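Morning F.,

Quick status update on the modeling queue. The single chain you submitted on Monday has been processed. Sequence for confirmation:
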Amino acid sequence: MSKINSLHINAYERDLKIRNRSPRTAQNYRETLLQLSEFVSGADLLELSRTEVEGYILHVLETRSAASASGRYRALRAFYNWAVREELVPVSPMAKMTPPKVVEKPIPVVPDQALKMLLAECSGTDFESPRDTAIIRLWCEPGSPRVSEVAGMTVDDVDQVLDLVRLLGKGGRVRLIPFGAKTGQALYRYLRARKAHPLAQQQPQRDGCLLGDDAVAEDPQRERARQPQVGVGDMAWVEAHEP
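Structure tokens below.
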């Protein structure tokens, strides 16, 4: 990447931090700008024409999905709007551009029988089984959380009196979702198992992670072994099930 573009991107990242944008958003914007810089062979991003920016978006459309191109479009629009506010450019090269059209695809629903098979695989007495059962049950609730929301949950995010979980979503937005009796039972059992785990006392150092990547201990070989048996790879979405 050229030195001039590195300066532009670093300055923009500082602005994102000042505006308290999420690290994931900042990383996505940075990746987009790095890709654009590479696409234009290091030319100054603030001197690009509309045609050059459109060429990059077209390249993403041809090599990736329309959704990816739409995401890159939004990231670049935010960058050039910042450049206009900072008076680095008189007008955005994207001022009259329109975003790529994204056709919504129906999300397949996982059959109840497949969910029952998956839950059966999590019926063991080891530590991971109640954890995985709680995750699956939570994903079966209406308004089920994203993977990133589950990974970010803490012990304090579960209200076992009102049967609610607190989720921190995209853009720092907080939402509450209620859960049913079976999910509540699964969360209760997991919290008991978690509390008894020898590494649980270390969790305050990791924000009390409840169900995510740092949720005490995991066995990667066991996690991989589960998937082929129940077809987890085909389960793109689970919602509003009561297996």
